[in-house]
Specification:
This protein has one domain (about 30-170). It is about 10% helix and about 45% strand. The chain contains 1 helix and 11 strands; from the N terminus they run H-E-E-E-E-E-E-E-E-E-E-E. It has one helix at about 1-15; strands spanning about 30-40, 45-50, 70, 80-85, 85-90, 90-95, 95-105, 110-115, 130-140, 140-155, 160-170. A hairpin with a 4-residue loop joins strand 7 and strand 8 (about 110-115). The radius of gyration is 21 Å and the shape is globular.
Length: about 170
């Protein structure tokens, strides 16, 4: 009986410490989000990302993106951009596939980067040699302050990224 009790205690201890049985159910501070659209060409496009919040911090100083540095364009895992068919992004070709989406913020322009290594954490493993497409877009002031970073895709294929008082965009066809 003593051995049976010891075995039961050991088994119970294992189950409480085993990651498969004790999953973290706390919500992430930067929750996952996604947008998707079917373009007139039939291409299905989606952007999956995590939404950081400003929380009183200053973008570019206390919070990414920092000017001139590669940013994962979100939080947690790198943002994933996927298209089921070949498309153009601001008139430049992007083959069908799954990509990580990075940006480099500048004063007047931002660089949007589509990188073929889509499954990575943040920008820590980012390699410029893996870039499939880079476009430069004009930085704009957002019409309203966006506490949470948000992507939006309109029916006409216009993609907007809103973050704090920043707005950048590009067009998919």
């Amino acid at each position: 009986m003593k051995y049976l009790f010891s075995f039961a205690m050991l088994l119970g201890s294992f189950m409480l410490t085993n990651p498969a049985h004790s999953q973290d159910t706390k919500p992430r501070p930067s929750p996952p989000a996604a947008v998707a659209i079917k373009l007139a060409s039939g291409a299905e496009v989606s952007i999956s990302y995590s939404q950081p919040s400003v929380k009183g911090r200053t973008i570019g100083k206390d919070l990414e993106p920092k000017e001139g540095q590669v940013w994962r364009t979100g939080a947690n895992e790198a943002t994933v951009f996927e298209t089921t068919k070949d498309i153009t992004v601001d008139g430049k070709s992007l083959p069908a596939g799954k990509y990580s989406l990075f940006t480099i913020a500048g004063q007047d322009n931002w660089t949007i980067i589509f990188n073929k290594t889509w499954k990575q954490w943040g920008a820590y493993d980012y390699k410029q040699a893996e870039d499939v497409l880079r476009i430069d877009v004009k930085a704009q002031k957002a019409p309203a302050f966006a506490e949470k970073m948000t992507f939006d895709i309109k029916d006409n294929g216009k993609v907007s990224l809103l973050w704090g008082d920043h707005k950048i965009g590009f067009t998919l066809k």
